[in-house]
Write a structure and sequence with these properties.
Number of helices: 10
Distance between the termini: 29 Å
Largest sheet: none
Strand content: under 5%
Order of helices and strands: HHHHHHHHHH
Number of domains: 1
Helix content: over 70%
Structural class: mainly alpha
Radius of gyration: 18 Å
Length: about 200
């Protein structure tokens, strides 16, 4: 949850970047792997209206958690459905980590080569950091193995055939699992994981 107006204002471009590129990555991956469904639904675009869910965006701004319009795909169009489903699922979190990497790289370039500009615009630091942090958060959240998140689709494709009944039972109670994770586990481990990823990416840069 955003605790002050400045934090909320800084978060808006970060949220838009995180959602747009996450969903666009899913759409592009599916399209390249042979499924025209995202293209037919107009999802191969940077237009935020194509990807935003109004209530999900409001939830983001009010409680710090929300959702976007899921990208429709038809796995029957994939050349290798098992592999391609995994690639499409992982493309969204990968795009968020790439945005974080690019953002922190730009910050380092400013610090190293344009210190005058950086000192003139000190507000760039929190903007860069907010974009990086929120994209990292998006990646971590979506890699959790909880329906309907990307991590669940990856795990199900990898081992689902051997535990079909267990997955059906898990999906039945997935909403409870999600909210337990969101409100019980996240407050203790999520920010730490975010910080570790931020540190590793910045160290790499």
């Amino acid at each position: 949850m955003f605790t002050n107006p400045r934090q909320l204002l800084l978060s808006i471009p970060a949220i838009f970047l995180a959602i747009i590129f996450h969903e666009l990555a899913h759409a592009l991956a599916a399209d390249k792997l042979g499924d025209p469904t995202p293209r037919s639904y107009g999802r191969l675009t940077l237009n935020p209206l194509a990807h935003m869910d109004l209530f999900g965006l409001i939830a983001f701004l009010l409680i710090g958690f929300g959702w976007a319009k899921p990208v429709p795909i038809n796995p029957n169009n994939f050349r290798n459905p098992k592999r391609d489903n995994i690639l499409v699922s992982i493309s969204g979190p990968a795009a968020n980590l790439l945005i974080a990497l690019i953002t922190l790289s730009v910050e380092v370039i400013f610090l190293k080569f344009f210190p005058g500009v950086y000192n003139t615009l000190p507000g760039l630091i929190p903007v860069f950091h907010t974009i990086a942090y929120l994209n990292i958060a998006f990646a971590i959240l979506n890699l959790l193995p909880i329906p309907p998140l990307d991590g669940y689709h990856i795990v199900k494709e990898l081992i689902g055939n051997h535990f079909a009944n267990a997955f059906l039972l898990y999906e039945r109670y997935s909403l409870i699992v999600f909210f337990v994770a969101l409100f019980v586990i996240f407050p203790y481990v999520f920010s730490s994981a975010q910080t570790v990823f931020f540190f590793l990416i910045r160290l790499f840069v």
